[in-house]
Amino acid sequence: MDRKITLAHGDGGELAHKLIQQIFVSAFGNTRESHFDASFLSLDSGQIAVTTDSFVVKPLFFPGGDIGKIAVSGTVNDLAVAGAVPLYLTAGFIIEEGFLLADLRQIVQSLADEARAAGVRVVAGDTKVVEKGSVDGVYINTAGIGIARSGKTVDPKTIESGDVVITSGTIGDHGIAILAARGELGLVTDLKSDCAPLNRMIDAVMDAAIAVKMMRDPTRGGVATTLVEIAEDFKVTIQLQEQALPIRREVVGACDILGFDPLYLANEGKVLMIVPKAEEERTLAILRRFPEGANAATIGEVTDTENGKLLLETPLGSRRRLHRLSGMMLPRIC
After folding, report:
1. How many CB atoms lie under 10 A from the CB of residue 246?
2. Engineering a disulfide at 262: which of 3, 163, 172, 176 sits with its beta carbon 3.0 to 4.6 angstroms away?
3. Which long-range contacts (CB under 8 A, 24 or more apart) does 10-14 make?
4. Which residues form the PurM-like N-terminal domain (predicted)?
5. Is residue 68 part of a domain?
6. 211, 304 Cβ separation under 8 angstroms
7. Closest to 196 measured CA to CA, from 299, 295, 97
8. Could you tell me the pTM of the whole model?
């Protein structure tokens, strides 16, 4: 096989066949499925959950991951925070002419390895090759399928005053790691992206019969935008404690230099949970059993169930209202 992608790799002929067999089928192991235009999946009876996402991160390789890893993490986490058990993924690749096959192989293998680690199967896919300059190396589109947990649902309609807001770890890691990897602003840091599938950690919380009322993964727009959406959608007021926010020193330092707010930085391996106050300590204990949840912390609480807004209380006791991210803080972060 050639060392670089050519337009012939996308024409459905011999080179396309070799590309699929030698890179994709060899990584995902779906030999039988590769003989057909669709995969047959066995699902238990009950509700299924479906999500889809596209990944255009720049750079394609960054500290702590690459576009293949983030494609699995992002899709699996979208299913998990909805209260589903992720089972299957599809992966569609749009590849630029001239892209190095060695880099493509590394990305595909990373995607396959991450899927196995998350306990999901990649059951279908597609490749398209486009002219040089049409995309930035490679883009990935995914679909995810899961099943609803029996008798264990996430119900935001039950949110009430006194419920607590928990984050599974430090915020803003991914955004700063991506910015540093670009090397555009002279930012130097050893910080790695938090990119990771969270379904096993979330499973442990749900299996403990904790009444999780809402879960979201705070990706683009960060913690603030995600919580504003929850507050407005379900007409609740959430108040965060600024001094309780777990933020790494590297993130604080970078934000001070660049004028960013960590609350609006992207995360790719964190979950926000709203749980009853009585379940706070048990939830934190379960999260902290996992590497992805080692820095789990309570960051706020629901203060009323009439006005949909997000507030931040400073260490001095003053409060200000937070809104959705306005404009674009960091381009191409996932």
Report:
1. 18
2. 172
3. 10/95, 10/127, 10/128, 10/129, 10/130, 11/129
4. 37-148
5. yes
6. no
7. 295
8. 0.88
Run of H or E including 207: helix 199-207
Q: Are residues 137 and 192 in the same domain?
A: no
Spatial separation of the C-alpha atoms in residues 218 and 269, rounded to whole Å: 9
Q: Look at the alpha carbons of 265, 254, 106, 196 in this order and tell me if their dihedral is positive or negative.
A: negative
**Is the same domain home to 140 and 17?**
yes
Question: CA 33, CA 40: separation in Å to the nearest integer?
Answer: 8
In the 8-state DSSP scheme, what is residue 140? E
Environment class of residue 153 by beta-carbon count within 10 Å: exposed (0-12), middle (13-18) or buried (19+)? middle
Torsion of CA 111, 113, 118, 119, to 10 degrees: 110
Q: What is the per-residue pLDDT across 161-188, written as a single tens digit (0 to 9) for each?
A: 999 999 999 999 999 999 889 887 677 8
Identify the domain containing residue 52 by its residue range: 7-148
Q: Which residue, of 127, 148, 169, is where some domain finishes?
A: 148
Residues 123 and 197 in one domain: no
78 and 174 assigned to the same domain: no
**Calpha distance 158→314 (Å, rounded):** 28
In-domain check, residue 331? no
CA 202 – CA 7 distance, rounded (Å): 42
Cα distance between residue 102 and residue 239, in whole Å: 48
